[in-house]
Amino acid sequence: MSMFNRNALLALFAAVAISACSSTPEDTTAEPADAGTTTQAPDQDVSGGTMDDTYGAAQEPTNPALENRVVYFDFDKANIRPDAIATLQAHAQYLSQNPGARVRVEGHADERGTREYNMALGERRAKAAASFLAANGASASQLEIISYGEERPVALGHDESSWSQNRRSELNYTAEAP
Asked: Is residue 65 within 8 Å of 89, Cβ to Cβ?
């Protein structure tokens, strides 16, 4: 029964992620293309359109670690590396100070391994990052976990350089602090 619930939950998260993500890129690419020179551009920060500008503008000058929203992992591991601790602590502090903020922790894997194994590995990586955030002040209600496994690579090569970029968890804010 427990395995069935876990698989059902994973399938539900995957379905929500696929449906949610299919519309998000269309919306974000349509706005800058249409509004690049209109009156909407001054309302937004023109520094490159990172989401950091919208969710933590007050925090940005005091903690540049909030700008980094990607945590990398070693091959076949889900342990938080020492180089990711400052980033995760900054986001945990932001979340603890802003109870209205919500973050989706997305786990990813490189192309090596079976699809099923990589989905589970991505989930372990997302859970590791979310657990770190929760242990350092974020509320569990602020965190959402999803795994994309090998399905969303950022680097398409077939070498260690590409694989190391794909072994990651991303912190994507889904709600801003009021």
From this structure: yes
pLDDT in tens, 109-166: 999 999 999 999 999 999 999 999 999 999 999 999 999 999 999 999 999 999 999 9
Closest CA to 100 of 5, 44, 177, 9: 177
Give 3-state DSSP helix, strand, coil % of the chain, rounded to 5: 50, 15, 35
pLDDT digit string, tens, across residues 24-34? 444 433 333 33
CA–CA distance, 164 with 124 (Å, rounded to integer) = 17
User: Which backbone phi and psi does 75 adopt, to 5 degrees?
Assistant: -55, 125
Half-sphere exposure of residue 165, counting CA atoms within 13 Å on the CB side?
Answer: 10
Distance CA(69)–CA(171), nearest Å, equals: 5
